[in-house]
């Protein structure tokens, strides 16, 4: 297994004729075809006919099929092509490869010590079936799950452990790569009590990437008066460029350029797209504002007004000012 990432590892997995790549190594590999898998959190524990799967598979570059064999008949499966033959992968198998990568990271960090037990975080919205499937993914990765925690709750626990004398009410705003989660809790002498959680399965960094992709395509078509091709490989390349621009903006304020040349009916069309933080906030404004509805629901569950929050823990892929008032 080849792993490549920065301080975070994108949840992308490539099954390449017996070799498994994860993170940036998977994203940047050439000629991935339909074997590059992502968004596994949106598939795991779901049936083929699930509304989420039905809607999302229209935009995925990999193919989703129905499991026809018992005991998991009707389950959403992923079709890959290895050594020229079709192979069906379960979402648990895909997630297991990511967990194997994390296990390898941990063992390297610990100087080669074997890691067999784990506390694994899941999105706040995960139901019993999705949590059970996550435990199965861990088993396939050689891990014994001590506990499943919601992702924002884990961040709150980390804060409580860091400042054991703190007595305050906190809100964790966790806008990750694929999902958005919120937890509201009270820390008393290092002890955490969660009062409310909420989340959105379709509000994360990858969704913001798609917003930039859509804006690029709209500008391209407006400039050239032609339809942008519906080619999955081409769109994945564009999406990677948009993701890189977004990540570069997160670390610097400089304007980013996305430049592509596309061949349509034997004619080449080039378009250079510019985006800076102001434009990013402008086109993604509705989605950023949408996070506040999720925050409001979590506060309502906790029966708290915004002014009762003493501290906000932000875990985001992008620089973001957050005002609850």
UniProtKB/TrEMBL annotation:
Natural source organism: Diploscapter pachys
Protein name (database record): Uncharacterized protein
Similarity annotation: Belongs to the heat shock protein 70 family.
InterPro entries hit by this protein: ATPase_NBD (IPR043129), Hsp_70_fam (IPR013126)
GO molecular function: ATP binding; ATP-dependent protein folding chaperone
Lineage of the species this protein comes from: Eukaryota, Metazoa, Ecdysozoa, Nematoda, Chromadorea
Record-level GO BP terms: response to stress
Any matching Pfam family: HSP70
This protein's record includes keyword ATP-binding: yes
Record keywords, A-Z: ATP-binding, Nucleotide-binding
């Amino acid at each position: 297994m080849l792993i490549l990432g920065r301080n975070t590892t994108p949840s992308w997995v490539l099954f390449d004729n017996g070799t498994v790549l994860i993170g940036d190594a998977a994203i940047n590999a050439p000629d991935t075809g339909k074997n590059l898998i992502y968004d596994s959190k949106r598939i795991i524990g779901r049936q083929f006919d699930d509304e989420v799967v039905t809607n999302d598979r229209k935009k995925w570059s990999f193919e989703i099929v129905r499991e026809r064999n018992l005991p998991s008949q009707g389950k959403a499966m992923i079709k890959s092509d290895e050594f020229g033959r079709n192979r069906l992968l379960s979402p648990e198998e895909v997630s297991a490869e990511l967990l194997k990568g994390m296990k390898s990271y941990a063992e390297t960090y610990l100087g080669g010590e074997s890691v067999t037990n784990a506390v694994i975080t899941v999105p706040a919205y995960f139901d019993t079936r999705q949590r059970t499937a996550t435990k199965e993914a861990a088993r396939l990765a050689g891990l014994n799950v001590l506990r499943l925690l919601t992702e924002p709750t884990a961040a709150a626990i980390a804060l409580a452990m860091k400042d054991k004398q703190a007595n305050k009410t906190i809100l964790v705003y966790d806008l990750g790569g694929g999902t958005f989660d919120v937890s509201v809790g009270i820390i008393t002498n290092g002890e955490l009590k969660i009062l409310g959680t909420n989340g959105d399965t379709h509000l994360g960094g990858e969704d913001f990437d798609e917003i930039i992709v859509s804006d690029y395509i709209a500008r391209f078509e407006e400039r050239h008066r032609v339809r942008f091709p519906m080619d999955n490989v081409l769109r994945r390349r564009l999406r990677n460029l948009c993701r890189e621009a977004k990540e570069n903006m997160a670390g610097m304020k400089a304007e980013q350029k996305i430049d592509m040349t596309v061949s349509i009916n034997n004619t080449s069309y080039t378009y250079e797209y510019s985006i800076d933080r102001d434009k990013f906030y402008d086109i993604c404004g509705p989605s950023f504002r949408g996070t506040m509805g999720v925050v409001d629901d979590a506060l309502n569950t906790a029966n708290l007004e915004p002014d009762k929050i003493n501290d906000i823990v932000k875990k985001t892929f992008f620089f973001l000012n957050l005002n609850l008032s």
